Amino acid sequence: MSAVLQAEGLGKKYGKRWALSGCTLDIPEGRIVGLVGPNGAGKTTLLNLAVGQIEPSAGSIRVLGGSPASGPEQLAKVGYVAQDTPTYAGLSIAEHLKLGARLNPGWDGALARERIERLGLDPAHRAGKLSGGQRAQLALTLGIAKRPELLILDEPVAALDPLARREFLQGLMEAAVENSLSVVLSSHLVSDLERMCDYLIVLVKSRVQVAGDVDELLAAHHRLTGPRRDAATLPADQHVVSESHTDRQSTFIVRTDGPIHDPAWTVGRIGLEDLVLAYMTPAPTRPTLEAIR
Amino acid sequence: MIWLTLRQFRVQAAVVFGGLAALGAVLAITGPGISDGYHSGLAACGTRENCSQFTARFFNDHRSYFGALAVIVMSVPGIIGVFWGAPLITRELESGTHRLVWNQSITRTRWLAVKLGVIGLAAMAAAGLAVLAATWWSGPLDEAAHDRFPRITPLMFDARGITPIGYAAFAFALGVTVGVLVRRTLPAMAITLVVFVAVQIAMPTWIRPHLIPPETGTVPITSENHGDILLNGDAFSVQVRGVPGAWTLSAETVDASGRTVGDMPTSLAAGPCAPPPPSADGGPPMGPAQACFDAIAELGYRGKVVYQPGDHFWPLQWAETGLFTALSLGLAGFCFFWTRRRLS
Amino acid sequence: MIEFHLDPGSGVSPYMQLVRQVRHALRLDLLRVGDQLPTVKDVVAQLAINPNTVLKAYRELEHEGLVAPRPGVGTFVTRTLAGESLAAHGPLRQELRRWLAKARLAGLDDESIEALFMTTFRAASQEDIA
Fold first, then answer.
1. What is the pLDDT of residues B51-97, one digit of tens each?
2. Do C45 and A198 touch (CB under 8 A)?
3. Is A172 on the interface with C (CB under 8 A)?
4. Which of A133, A139, A248, B37 is disulfide-compatible with A85, CB 3.0–4.6 A?
5. Distance (Å) from the C-alpha of residue A169 to the closest C-alpha of chain C?
6. Contact state of A87 with B97 under an 8 Å Cβ cutoff
7. CATH of domain A3-205
8. Is C27 inside a domain boundary?
9. How many helices (H) and strands (E) does chain B have?
C-alpha cells in the first residue's frame, strides 16, 4: 500500500519556538486519520506543512508521493479545509463554485451543485451571511468538488453546534466513501473523531506521542490495576504511558505487544478517549516509591 | 484566476474608474470652452505686449482649476497604492481566504502574478487616462503658462507625460509590498501613503535634478533678466532669473574669478544701485537704474544658473519612468519571494 | 431495510454493534432472506462513521454466512436466524422466569440478579473457550 503522507524528522520553527519537531509519520492510503491534541500542540502546523502552506524548518514531508504545493498537479491532489473554514464574505455561493471551477482542472461541477442543493442553500446567497455550519459545508464542498485524493481538514467542527457538527461529519464521511478519499482531520476532542477514524495521531507539545491504526492501538494498550508498585518494576516490553497511585493501589496504562502474565494485575481494555487522554497527561518523570513518600 | 481577480477588484475599480469617468466628463464639457477662449483671445490680441498680457490674464483666470487638476493627477498613483495595492493581499490574510485560494489547483506564484499583472495594468491605465485627460484639458493653459510654470518644473512634471504611469505602477507595487510585510490592511495603507508621499517629495528634491546632468549658464545681470534684489542696509545682492521654460535648480552670483559670492560690495548699494526715491504717484518704486547694471558688469559680477532646460522634459520623463518601472519590478519580485517563502 | 444506531457509551466497538444489530434483527424476523442491508454509503452518511467500520461489519456477517454481497447492487440477507432459535425461546423464557422468581425469594434485588447473571454468563463462556 502506498503512503498518503510520509514525514521524516519533520519540524517547523517560529522564531525560537519549535511548533512541531521530530515528527516522523507514515500514513497509509485510504484511511480516515484523526489528528488529536490540545490547542497549540502543533496540529495546524503539521497540516499546513502537509498542504504546503508553510515550509519545514527541518526534515522532510511527502504527500501522495510529492512535495506539498510543489505545482498545480500536486495542489489538485490535495483538498484543504482550513481552520475556521474561510470563504470570501463578499462572494455568493455560486461565485465560490465558479471560483472552484476556474481554478481546478478536475472540478466536478455537478457534484458541487448537487451538494449545495441538498444542503438547501441558495446559490445567490453571499458567503458572509451564512451560518458557521453552512460556511463549513461550503468550504467542504469546495474541498470535495476539486476531486482530490486526499482531503485535509483543520478543526472543521470546532466552532459548530452539535447538529451542524453531525451534518458536516456525515457529509464528509459520505464523500469519503463516494470518492474513496483519504482524509486527515484534526480536533482537540477525540470524541469528535472516535467514530470516524481508523488511524490516529496524538500530538502533544509539538511532538507526535503516538500514531497508528486505531484497532492496533486499542489492542496494544491496557489498563493495569493492582497493589501499589513502581513503574520501574514492570517488564521491559511494557511501556508505561501514564500512571497514577493511591497509597495502596497503582493504575498504569501500558503499551505492549505481548500478553500480560502478572497475576497481580487486573487487566482492562481502554477506549480511544482514555488512550488519548493518557498520552495527553504529562508523564511523570518516573518517580521512585521512596521519592513519593 | 483572472475572473477571480476581477471579481474581487470590482468595487475598488468601480470607485477609481468611476471617479476618473466623472472627472473626464467635467473636463470634456469645459475643455472646448477654454480652448476656444484661448484661441480667439490670441487671435484678437494683436500686439505682442497685448498678447502677453492676455495670456497672463487668461492663465490667472483658470489657475485654480489648472492647479487642482494637476494635484488630482498627481494623487491618482497615491490613491492606487493605498486603496488597490495595500489591501490586495492583507485582505486575504485578514480573512484567512489565502488558505482557501492557495489550495486550489493553482500555484501561489501564478495567483500573485495574475493579481499583480491585472491590477498593475489597471493602475497604469488609470494613471494614463488621468494624465491624458488632464493634458488635453490643460493644453491652452500649459501654453499660456509656459514661462511661469514650465512643464519641466516639479509640480507640473509629475502631472504630465508618462511619469504618472510609472508612479502608479510603483505606488501599486509599494502598497502590495508593504501589505505582505505588515499583513494588516489599515497600517499597510497608512505606511504606503507616508512612504509614497515621501518618495514624491524626495524625487524632485534630490534625485530628478541629477538623472540627467543639468546645464550651467553664466550670463550678465541685466535689467531684463534680474530676479530678486535684496537691499538691506549695506548688504546688496541681486540674482538672475532662470532661463525661460527651464527648471532652475540654483541661481547665484559669481565674481570675476568665478567664485560664488553672497553680497556685492557696499559701494554699489550706496552708489548707482541705491534705491530710487518713491515715485510721485505713490506707486511702487521702479527697479534699479541702468547705471546699476552697468556698474555690476564693470565689477565683473555675473549670474550663474544651474538648470534643466525645457528640452530635457522627455529624456527626464523616460529616465524617471524607467527608474520607477525598475523599482516596481524589484518590489514585485520581492513580493513573489515573500509570498512564496514567508506568508502562511 | 433496517436502520443502524450507535451507542457511544456501551464500550462495544462500533463494528460489533452493527454486527449485533443485524443478528438481532435476523433473530426477531425483522430481516428476512433476500432483504437488502443499507449500503455502506448510507450507513456512513447516517451515522458519520468510518466506512471501514461498516465494511468490516458486513465482512463479518458475510463470513458467518448471514449475508452476501451482490457486486454493484448491495448486500443481501442469505440466511435468517429466526427459525431455529425462535421455537426454543418460549420454554427457555419460562425457565428463566422461574429462576428469577427463585432469586427474588432468596432476597436478591435487581442489581444483584443482573450481576450474578453476568458473572456466571462470563465465567461459562470463558470455560467454553478454554
1. 888 888 888 888 888 889 999 999 999 999 999 999 999 999 999 99
2. no
3. yes
4. A139
5. 6
6. yes
7. 3.40.50.300
8. yes
9. 12, 6
d(CA B105, CA B103): 6
Quick check: is C54 in a domain? yes
Instruction: Delimit the domains of chain B by residue range.
Output: 2-213+313-341, 215-276+288-311
Structural domain range at position C92: 86-129
The chain A residue lying nearest C8, using CA atoms, is A195
Contacts of A178 in chain C (CB under 8 A): 41
User: Minimal CA–CA distance to A203: which of A35, A63, A27?
Assistant: A35
- Chain C partners of A197 at a C-beta cutoff of 8 Å? 50
CA distance B241 to chain A (A): 59
pLDDT at C86 > cutoff 60: yes
Pairing of strands A58-63, C36-37: unpaired
pLDDT score for B309: 87
C-alpha pair distances (Å), B57 with each of B54, B62, B145, B155, C81: 5, 9, 10, 21, 111
Check whether A122 has a pLDDT greater than 50: yes
pLDDT at residue C10 tops 90: no
pLDDT at A288: 40
Residue C125 falls inside a structural domain:
yes
Q: How many domains does chain C have?
A: 2
Q: How confident is the model at residue B236 (pLDDT cuts 50, 70, 90)?
A: confident
Lowest mean pLDDT among A222-231, A250-259, B278-287: B278-287
Q: Which amino acid is at C10?
A: S
C-alpha grid cell, residue B318: 523616460
Cell 447516517, located at residue: C46
**What per-residue confidence (pLDDT) applies to B342?**
77
The residue of chain B nearest to residue A52, with distances taken between CA atoms, is B103
| Cβ proximity of A100 and A133 under 8 Å | no
CB B196 within 8 A of CB B77: yes
- Write down the pLDDT at residue B274: 67
Residues within 8 A of B (CB atoms), A 96-135 only? 98-100, 102-106
Residue B29 identity: I
Chains B and C touch (3+ CB pairs under 8 A): no
Mean pLDDT calculated for residue range A180-205? 88
Tell me what pLDDT residue A286 has: 43
Q: How many CB atoms lie within 10 A of CB C5?
A: 10
* Residue contact A75–B104, C-beta within 8 A: yes
CATH number assigned to the domain comprising residue C59: 1.10.10.10
CB pair distance less than 8 Å for C44 and A174? yes
What local confidence, expressed as pLDDT, does residue A271 receive?
Answer: 84
Residue A291, pLDDT above cutoff 60: no
